Amino acid sequence: MPTTSDNNILPQHHQNEKRKPSQIRTVLETIWTWINHLVVGFLFGFALEKSKVYLPSLIVGQMRWTQLTMLIVFLGATLTGLIAFAILEKFGLYKRNPKPPLSLLDSKNWLLGYGNNILGGLFVGFGMSLSGACPGTVLVQIGTGVPTTPYTLAGTLIGSVTYGYLHNLITTRLAAKFGAKSAIATLDGVTKVPALILAFVISAIGFPLLWYGTTRIPWRVDVYQDLLIDFARGRPETVLLNPFLSIQDVEFNFTVPGWSPFSASLAIGLAQIASVVLVHNVIGASSVFPYVGYLLVKTVDRNWEVNAPFYKEFVGLGSTVRFSVGVIVGGLVSAVTSGLTYGAGIGGRPVVDVLVYSPGVVARLVFGGVFLVYGSRIAGGCPSGHGLSGMAQLSIASGVSVAAMFAGGTGVAYIVGWF
């Protein structure tokens, strides 16, 4: 007959036995979640590298409106997400979560409540033209080894660890409701036209125009020249035959140097769909920077919760790191399998030494990185979060933010010019 102590032990033993399957399931679910974030990031990074919209010269060229590759890729990926979100929501498989307007001052009537979307968008545009990057493409630049990346990355780190303190200063001294959210406004809500109908109409007009643009612009020449500029700056060696000339307007061969703007836009849109299916969220690249800022700040500032409470909302967002690692690896794999010898140069030219940049260019890149982080935090998103994801969910705030990004980028690009 069991003793009293045995009676106490046996139930606990059975409880532990019952816990084991649930603990194992929790571990397996965690691993599966990690894998999904990595996979989505990989797909996004791979498609971005194939599109070549991560190249600094291509981004600056777009902001100067001498090249249209980036615009076609951006709009095509947005349209793909738009039609996918509308269909998934129609069948109850996804619920849109559009971004809201963000106010600049305490009065939400100022700039119709979109003050932060406009200011933040302008800052992101400044950063894009100064650095030749955006929060998402800088991750691909890390994977492919773009020579300007160390300086841009340094700027993003500076912005990441300082913005929280700046935000606290603004909200405590200048405008208590800085960045306050207003009621979400969407295009379908304003027009009273169902999202699915809007998506089909916009896509029916947009996709043919983007296809026509792809067939008309000299993207094969532009992309190759941008590669030469960014990876082999100023070197006089003989340029080999342009490998992009043989790429078709619709082609998804993984081993070719790149895809057309139209094809790449569809691939990025498919990565967006994968994100919704696998991680039940849309793509956004800029959150990793304040998360890293939070990790650094809490290490050096014991009173960070008082001095920079902004970082509290990023506690526990480790998923952004996993996604970002996937983007970096995806960009690297695409580059390695593309047939272009990034490590030894492009077109037979050696890769430029990052140390050859002048102090002025270095300062430009660093400040560009700071603007990217500040702008994406003020506006509540970057070209990925507001553009590929926000506009695809018919968010008016995202449309305002993206318009401000292009406006700010265009203005600065014509002032500072190329690198």
Description:
By secondary structure, the protein is mainly alpha-helical. Helices cover 65% and strands 0% of the residues. It is built from 16 helices and no strands. It has helices spanning 4-51, 56-63, 69-90, 115-131, 137-144, 149-174, 187-191, 195-216, 219-231, 261-279, 288-300, 304-307, 319-336, 359-379, 383-390, 396-416. Helix 1 packs antiparallel against helix 10 (261-279), helix 3 runs parallel beside helix 10 (261-279) and helix 4 (115-131) packs parallel to helix 16 (396-416). The longest helix is centred in the first third of the chain and has 48 residues, at 4-51. The N and C termini lie far apart (86 Å).
Short description:
This protein is mainly alpha-helical and 419 residues long.
Distance between the termini: 86 Å
Gross morphology? globular
Number of strands: 0
What is the helix content?
55-70%
Characterize the biggest β-sheet.
none
- Radius of gyration computed on alpha carbons: 23 Å
> Regions with pLDDT < 50 over 5+ consecutive residues?
1-10, 234-238, 343-355
- Helix and strand pattern: HHHHHHHHHHHHHHHH
Mean pLDDT: 89
Task: Kindly estimate the percentage of residues that lie in beta strands according to DSSP.
Answer: under 5%
Number of helices: 16
Q: What is the SS-derived class? A: mainly alpha
